[in-house]
Design a protein that fits this description.
This protein is mainly beta. It is about 10% helix and about 40% strand. It is globular, with a radius of gyration of 21 Å. It binds beta-D-glucopyranose (BGC).
Length: about 375
């Protein structure tokens, strides 16, 4: 080809790539609707993020809750694959953290106490004698400021919240930002950041209950799970880590080869008895702060698969053990035991009291920043 022709060819190719991108960007969108008022009179809204392929996530600024997430199965059929409700009242009545942002400290802090720089802080105790998921009014129960954000590769919503010094007993004004992005590659990306004006502890996570066969469509025991973790953190009867990092080898916690969640869940193994199933933190392989693939789940009837990528050192596998049929969710579906599983990326539970665990201290002037991605795909697509 002559140089001029090569130039023309290159120009045409670039124009086409640009047009394709613009098209994808043009299709992704965010819409907003009212979702009701909280008891203290604040307005809650619900945002629908749609990507260029039609996948869709609904997020309310009440608790930053993902109320629905619709992704394709192997035939391209969209289904809602997270547990939840279609109205605010149901969330206000109480629920086990369906789809919510969890903070200031996700998971448990023993006896609701920790000491930082010689000062003991007393937190709300809301789970037996322990503190769970940020206390009585954690980040899952507050109204966040929300604004759609322009991104090139999908649709995004930015949530911010100023968590005041002393709320639920934590020190320091914590300025928190969570950005949810539904990318055009069917990824739900969660970008968490925070700064404080006083040294404190922070551990943010997300609490969706997934069922890749569709929410309410049976239990999750046949989902195949791979977790890239050679160790886990065994707990006491109150689900507080003992401090041991135990090898998964030869135990029902070995998911280094994909295995169904249900295959060993009823084995006579002390940790499964204590958790009433899986309710444990895995010590993820790889380096903290590096975004890496840590888990993969697949469901054979729908062909759906989900990968989890994170910068975090740990991940709680919770197999929905305490769901008991008392909650009725979307489409009148009754949520029975193990109808959903959570993969909560995090620092290990009770880190503020476990000096050997990776630290959860955020110092004044530093920036907390973690990323987690739930990436959806299908197997055996037609
Ligand atoms: C905890 C469980 C708890 C569930 C819902 C999970 O993150 O580990 O013990 O029951 O959240 O509250």
């Amino acid at each position: 080809m002559k140089p001029v022709k090569v130039l023309y060819f290159a120009l045409i190719c670039s124009a086409m790539i640009l047009l394709l991108n613009l098209n994808a960007y043009g299709q992704a969108k965010v819409t907003k609707e009212g979702f009701g008022k909280t008891p203290d009179g604040q307005d809650a809204d619900i945002y629908t993020l749609t990507n260029s392929g039609g996948a869709e996530v609904k997020i309310t600024n009440y608790g930053g809750i993902v109320t629905s997430l619709r992704v394709p199965d192997r035939n391209g059929k969209l289904d809602d694959i997270v547990l939840g409700f279609d109205n605010l009242d149901a969330y206000l009545k109480g629920h086990p953290y369906f789809g919510a942002i969890i903070g200031r400290y996700g998971n448990r802090i023993a006896k609701g106490r920790f000491t930082l720089h010689g000062v003991e802080y007393k937190l709300a105790v809301n789970n037996g004698e322990n503190h769970l998921h940020g206390g009585t009014k954690g980040f899952d129960k507050v109204v966040w400021n929300a604004k759609p954000r322009k991104v090139a590769n999908g649709a995004a919503l930015e949530l911010t919240y100023l968590n005041k010094d002393g709320e639920e007993g934590y020190p320091g004004n914590l300025s928190v930002k969570v950005v949810y992005t539904l990318t055009n590659a069917n990824e739900l990306k969660i970008d968490y950041s925070a700064t404080t004006d006083k040294d404190t502890v922070v551990n943010l996570t997300h609490h969706s209950y997934f069922n890749l066969a569709g929410q309410g469509n049976g239990d999750i025991l046949n989902h195949r799970l791979f977790v890239n973790a050679a160790r886990f953190t065994p707990t006491d009867a109150g689900s507080i880590p003992t401090g041991e990092l135990r090898s998964v080898r030869g135990t029902p916690f070995d998911f280094t080869r994909a295995t169904t969640i249900g295959a060993r869940i009823n084995q006579d193994y002390e940790q499964l008895r204590l958790g009433k199933g899986y309710d444990h933190n895995f010590v993820l392989n790889g380096k903290i702060g590096t975004l890496r693939r840590v888990a993969r789940v697949s469901e054979s009837t729908s062909g759906r698969a989900m990968e989890v990528w994170t910068t975090e050192p740990g991940m709680q596998l919770y197999s929905g053990n305490f769901l008991d049929g008392t909650l009725t969710g979307k489409d009148g579906k009754v949520y029975q035991q193990r109808y959903g599983f959570c993969l909560e990326t995090q620092h290990y539970p009770d880190s503020p009291n476990k000096p050997k665990f990776p630290t959860t201290v955020l110092r004044k002037g530093d920036r907390y920043h973690t990323i987690t991605i739930y990436k959806f795909s299908v197997r055996g697509a037609k």
